[in-house]
Amino acid sequence: MTQQENQTSPSLRPSLGWAGLLVLGVANILGAGVFVMTGTAAASFAGPAVTISFVLAGFACLLVGLCYAELASRLPESGSSYTYCRRTFGALPGWALGWLLFLEYNIAASMLGLGFGGYLVSLLADFGIHVPASVSTSLVTTTLVDGTGFQFGVGHSVNLVAAAACLSAGIILALGISKSALVNTVLVVVKVLVLVGFVLAGMHAVDPANWQPYVPANEGGFTYGWEGIARAASLLFFAFLGFETVSTAAAETRNPHRDVPIGILGSLAICALLYVSVATVLTGLVPFRELGVADPIALAVDRIGWPLIATLIKIGALAGLGSVLLANAFGHSRVCYAMSSDGFLPGLFSVVHPKRNSLWKANLTLASLAALGAALLPISVLADMISLGVALTFAMVAAALIDLRSREPEKAGRFRVPLGGVWINGIWFGTVPVLAIVVSFLMTLPVLLDLVNQIRHGEWLPACLLLTYLAIGLAIYMWYGKPRAQGQPPAATAELSGSLN
Fold this sequence. Notes:
This protein is mostly helical and 501 residues long. The protein has helices at residues 3-8, 18-29, 32-46, 50-74, 81-89, 91-126, 160-174, 177-202, 225-236, 245-248, 256-285, 296-303, 307-341, 360-376, 379-407, 431-456, 461-485, 492-500; strands at 140-145, 149-154, 421-424, 427-430.
């Protein structure tokens, strides 16, 4: 689709305020991190000091979130990280980051579909409805092997439950932003109420002895001690992912210069408070070594004899994962919208429904791709592929802010990151973006080491999938995106945003 066609075709209309952006941010952050990862981090790495790990991870994401907030205020357009990189570094780096974002969002959707399907199958079992494993487990299987990570195999099942969850999110979004926003708001309210209820009820039943010792002695490697706290922080860093989705809605926000920073930073603050509160109560109810299960909160309420509350927790988890699935799909379609508008992706990704104000073709196409991943691949493979892309994305966003601040003057009325910076040879090195680059790589270093360890022990599947995806992306850029993007200035997306706003 050409630039001229984009300007004359229906475009996305500004319809969101700061409250809607807060809901979008909380919806996309508050999900598997609190319902699953809290127990794993406490049992395997940090013990009761998992609360410190949450604070460290939240601070790291705050640094990155501040960079997103200023860039979204300066460049209130669809596309988020892709747009920032395209505008500052040019076509090839912009495409590379956009292609990584495409992978990140798609894999996240598949993972969320798997999580949603797992909780749904568990909840149905509570009511005597048993879903066959042949339609609720993935084709590729994994077996945990001590010292070598996961061993992969191929089974005889296809996870249709998870695939249906992904497709449902795409259909809801295709119906229009007002309808999807209503559904998302309801889901967010349900999961927040469930978590707040758990904290308020559980705080009266905690056993303070479970918090002793608060920092367990190190047992070697990253098992407990301050080493374990740091490792848990690197794991929980990914529990805060999702705040960047707020910036993808900048072009659909009535006052993006004010509201997008509120949405990003406010959603991070709300989720950090909930994470620390839930972790405090959880480790007070159950000895931390016993929390390494897929449903630690349900385990906690089961231990103190609340079967009804356990069922409500599973419903809350479904609401949580469902809202993240919707918010993730929203952000994915907006990134593809910006890439399509720049000529990097086919025109179907920028088709706006004239009545529903939705990217309906993009929503349904992306949902189908996510459903395919959820049906065939297990969570462990998907997680390996997403983590490294996240680090590179965050680092490039921080670098984009450094470049933009160095080249363009300050603008009144725009959000600015605090703590200042220093000028060296005409380049502004801000304290916040430099720290954001450092922590992004530090938080993902253990993931990289684990991937290398898998390769050393002969498990090449995650690395091969990632390299194949990158090779496909380079081919698409050379033979499709580059010829169509030639002649368009880096600000092509900015011209498009004029019609959006």
